[in-house]
Amino acid sequence: MPFVSFVKALRAGQSVQFPLEAKSLEYARGLDAEDDLGHLRDQFLIPTRGSLKKKALNGTLLGKGPNGATTNQDQDDNTPSIYFVGNSLGAQPKAVRSYLEAHLETWASVGVNGHFTQYDNSPLVSWQDMAEDCATKSAAIVGASPGEIVIMNSLTANLHLMMASFYRPTEKRHKIILEWKPFPSDWYAIQSQITLHGFSPATSMVEVQPDPSPNNFYISTATILSTIDAHADSAALLLLPGIQYYTGQLFDMPLITRYAQDRGIVVGWDLAHAAGNVELALHDWNVDFAVWCTYKYLNAGPGAIAGAFVHERHGKVGRDGSGKAEFRPRLSGWYGADKSVRFNMEKEFQPTAGAGGFQLSNPSAVDLASLSAALGVFGMTSMARLRDKALVLTAYAEWLLDGVLAGDGNGGDGGPPFRIITPRSPLERGTQLSILFGEGLLERVSKRLVENGVVFDVRKPDVIRIAPVPMYCTFVDVWKFGDIFKEAMNSK
Ligand SMILES: Cc1ncc(COP(=O)(O)O)c(C=O)c1O
């Protein structure tokens, strides 16, 4: 029963020593046999080695032509790729197609009536209720009540909307604490918010730096806390990623949230790389707000509609003495208005209580249908089970990569040919491993990986990121990746 004992050790923060026979394909197959989430892979369309070579659409989902007929030599390889890029774009859940078809049939058949009617034999609720339905399906994924979640817009747009409400700088408190290498969109959003409020990014942006040692990317919790202390009187907002996109470092969200809030700082999290990847408890952690996209670990498709969390205490709607609604200031739109009055077309904004009151527009039913299908797969399991599997998959990938290093000796410059820059502690990372190559290696190794059907992501000049996502990746995938990687490292 190695799988269960590995989970136990990894959940306790220990690293796992795989036995020597773990180098064999048979061993990987054994781990897959023990994995009770293996059936979830059938819910997805994993690009094949053949379909990845498509130059033109041919009316089929993967490589083969209609009824399995050969399309052309190149596209005829139905071997699944090693799809290790769910940290960038999740694989397509099969259900997306039927949900979209249901939506299209509804729209074609009943037109505008689809807004308010739920049809038998449809996986969808009425268009009006779809965003709330997706919020309900997201609740267990992010650890919040459905009323604390709103499904709308895209990640950066939601970041701006949240900052409009939660970043209220004053002469005394105007700084935003962020990390040194945020995703550029977060940087631009923060910078522009500061400028819009009439402050200067030079004095209002505080970047938490990695601990100073050569080539270090790791940011310790102690460094984050001491940065908070250093700016405790002047920071208005702390905005960090739950998981850092470049290194895959998972931050201690509950501790950092508490520490900053105790010093009067509002706390928001960008969960682009954390939602659907690691267990979250946004409500219990008392997070003020959070935002995430749904196209990475949540598999809703490129640019799909995003999510935002607003803690219940910020979403309350009260009444003043004259019966006027009282609520947290925000940028408002008609879809944030309570359903009971939304269509009265009045000038007075009366928000829905909760995060739904931050909704702006009538959300896209196409987007919501896709997200609803993708979230349905999460409903077949739990984040705890996905995390269990992810811990072992990632540790196995790490162990195989370390094996390549041990067998490979030094790179040309005397240093190791590559380095895993993702934290070694299983509790400080999600599914992703980031690999930093020695000079000149990235191109050669990447080419070999691509030729051998590995789909991954490159951050030039010298990093690749791989993510063996537990929902549809297998231990055999990880083993094959290790084998191909070794061959790629040794190729000339
Ligand atoms: C951490 C992070 N923030 C922001 C974004 C931008 O997201 P969007 O284009 O959906 O606004 C991304 C996209 O990958 C991201 O990874």
UniProtKB/TrEMBL annotation:
Subcellular localization, as worded in the UniProt entry: Cytoplasm
Record-listed N6-(pyridoxal phosphate)lysine modification sites: K296
One Pfam family of this chain: KYNU_C
This protein's name: Kynureninase
Main location: cytoplasm
Similarity remark: Belongs to the kynureninase family.
One of the GO BP terms on file: L-tryptophan catabolic process to kynurenine
Positions of pyridoxal 5'-phosphate binding: L155, T156, F183, P184, S185, D186, D270, H273, Y295, W334, N362
Organism of origin: Bombardia bombarda
Molecular function GO labels: kynureninase activity; pyridoxal phosphate binding; transferase activity
Keyword Kinase among record annotations: no
Reaction equations catalysed: 3-hydroxy-L-kynurenine + H2O = 3-hydroxyanthranilate + L-alanine + H(+); L-kynurenine + H2O = anthranilate + L-alanine + H(+)
Pathway info: Amino-acid degradation; L-kynurenine degradation; L-alanine and anthranilate from L-kynurenine: step 1/1; Cofactor biosynthesis; NAD(+) biosynthesis; quinolinate from L-kynurenine: step 2/3
